[in-house]
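Supplementary notes for students who missed Thursday's class. We covered one full example, reproduced here. Read the sequence, then the structure, then the short commentary at the end.
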Amino acid sequence: MRDNDKNRSKIVFLLIIMSFMFDKLRKGFIFGAVFSLYYCRNTVNYYLIHKRMEQVFSYIIGLGAAVMMPIIFTILGVCIGIKFSKALKSGLLVGVGFVGLSVVTALLTSSLGPALSKVVEIYGLQLKVFDMGWPAAAAVAYNTSVGAFIIPVCLAVNILMLLIKTTRTVNIDLWNYWHFAFIGAVVYFASDSILWGFFAAVICYIITLILADYTADKFQGFYDKMEGISIPQPFCAGFVPFAIVINKVLDKIPGFNKLNIDAEGMKKKFGLLGEPLFLGILVGCGIGALSCKNGQEIIDKIPYILGLGIKMGAVMELIPRITSLFIEGLKPISDATRELIAKKFKGAVGLNIGMSPALVIGHPATLVVSLLLIPVTILLAVILPGNEFLPLASLAGMFYIFPLVLPITKGNVLKTFIIGFVVLAIGLYFVTDLAPCFTQAAHDVYAKTQDAAVNIPEGFEGGALDFASSPFSWAIFHMTYSFKIIGSAILVLITLFLMVLNRRAIVKYQKSVKEAQ
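Structure (token representation):
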């Protein structure tokens, strides 16, 4: 992008932010749109507007979650009537939470990456799909025509669904909209059609909102201080059907339903061995030992092995502390948003605010299961026939599989581990299958942006466990791209059916609440 275009994008971005300072959110959107159109007045055509919008949203997203989310939540807080100082503090706490989470996950990948690479070298593993991690997936998602418009398109869909009562989730988790843009971008590059790309993204968005509604009550009942919150993130939601089926199957095994092993129970039964901190140290030391060629090297590298163990223990201990910052920062915003929506949407009852799963990834059961699955996933990647993907950079995303699984298993560590084992084994094949299309999209984005995050090493294809391993991305991609009209028609019918079911549930719930009053 030329410097001139960058400066113009910054101007439009600032004008849009200024527009939000109006007392009515609706006026803010209109004011921002007018300024954007005025800016394009000399040659008002779809191509120019598209390019300008793409530049503006690329600039906003390029700020990163740590900067973007405080700005968004501060503006949102002021728009919904919170004092500027309080809204700013809430936004900054969210930003600090993202910084802390980024630092901890970077510690995880930077510490484990070299050790696991050494394991690959020692044991001569030949896996041609290179793990690019979620930064590459997000870069592919947002640096495309689909990504440029994904936020306003999805917000419009969300508002429409609220009006026709087919969802009760207001999704303000704007950062994670990259998941919807990702599936849209992959379909767009594979089919060479932006319409098919948006179709896939919107279908994914609608189904995710419905699953957020379906899981909201269990989610709020399982986690502390999550009243009025739901999780409309497709990577998490994609594992819900698997979790429901596997959980029911496990309950039918005689005696298995009596094995209620939760994280707190592990602490009581195993003492120090059941602590996430200590488990992190054990797994870290184990991986460090595996990265040594022989017994003598293990002895020589004892300081390194112990250091890796301490770093893994630190990750397990720090994540729950960091997630408390998200809760503290988001609570005033979510409370005020819920009150405002209740006033604006007359007759609406039980609306939830869609938030990031980062709020709850610090749960002890999530930490324990994720940590235990790291070496197991590496082993699966090596032994599963036909798999070509070795997860390394994506391991930090392991925590995000379980936020909506735990309410279904009621925090049972054994059940959650089995569910994680199954979905990850299948997910490795999904990543391998989508690798050619992911690679095509990444090469195109790199050619345009020179973003190092999407620069796939020569001789490899690219992949990422984050969302590419989700049943959502794989199923929607193939139904849209491989089966085209027939597959898309089936997706539409399924989506409409789910919307009708959800509307009935919402109307029934609202009626029961009114009768109780």
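Commentary. The radius of gyration is 23 Å. Residues 5-35 have pLDDT under 50 and may be disordered. If anything here is unclear, bring it to office hours.
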